[in-house]
Amino acid sequence: MIKIKNLDKYYINGEMKLHALKDITFSIEKGEFVAIMGSSGSGKSTMMNILGCLDHTFEGEYILDAIEVSKLKDEELSKIRNKKIGFVFQSFNLLSKLSALENVELPLLYSGVHHKERTKKAKAVLEKVGLGDRLDHKPNELSGGQRQRVAIARALVNEPAIILADEPTGNLDSTSEKEIMQLFKELNEQGKTIIIVTHEPEVGKACKRVIRFKDGQVIEDVKSI
User: Fold this and answer.
1) Average confidence score pLDDT of the chain
2) Cα–Cα distance between 200 and 211 in angstroms, integer?
3) What is the per-residue pLDDT for 225?
4) Burial 204-217 (b: 16+ CB within 10 A, else e)
5) Domains in the chain, please, with CATH?
6) Helix, strand, coil percent content, the chain, rounded in steps of 5
7) pTM of the model as a whole
8) Which of 57, 221, 82, 108 is nearest to 162 (CA)?
9) Residue 65: which residues within 8 A CB-CB, separation 6 or more?
10) What is the mean pLDDT of residues 157-184?
11) What is the dihedral of CA 18, 19, 20, 26, to 10 degrees?
């Protein structure tokens, strides 16, 4: 599903050249449940931006679902993001004036899916994440855990190759965190490839594999038994 080989990332700041990622190599197979972990400044967020096709100014190889990302133009990268990757963010990134159903429909709208089909698919994924009775509720009428479920439904609606979640439990209480991680576990058991970028040990423990970054390098890559 994902192949990263000899990847280097540099940031230029005036005359300074910061080596943010150093010769990174790893693969993620279809159906894996992976945590990318590390402290602030470790390189995990930079790695997430590359995995999410938000940044393609790097050296080395990145192949996503048989597509070589480094050779794509901006317009092609945008299509890849919409079709191949479902994003889940710490701050939910829901539009406050739209209902849960309308928020989930947005990726389908951008893909040009007809209104009736959009509504049908959005309802189905909201029911899948346990929010079939909250379709018309706006974000401010939902709890933090429910908002994150809407965000996960939005990430799922285009049937992407991978779900990429950035600190998805960072704004949640401990009960909601457990519920969201249980949802990710169930989605993974149904065959979804899930990558979670996090600094929280409990989230890492819930995943089946941990890739740990420090100072721009992978220092540990461990699968749980």
Assistant:
1) 92
2) 13
3) 62
4) bebbebbbbbeebe
5) 29-57+71-223 (3.40.50.300)
6) 40, 30, 30
7) 0.92
8) 82
9) 1, 2, 84, 161
10) 92
11) 170
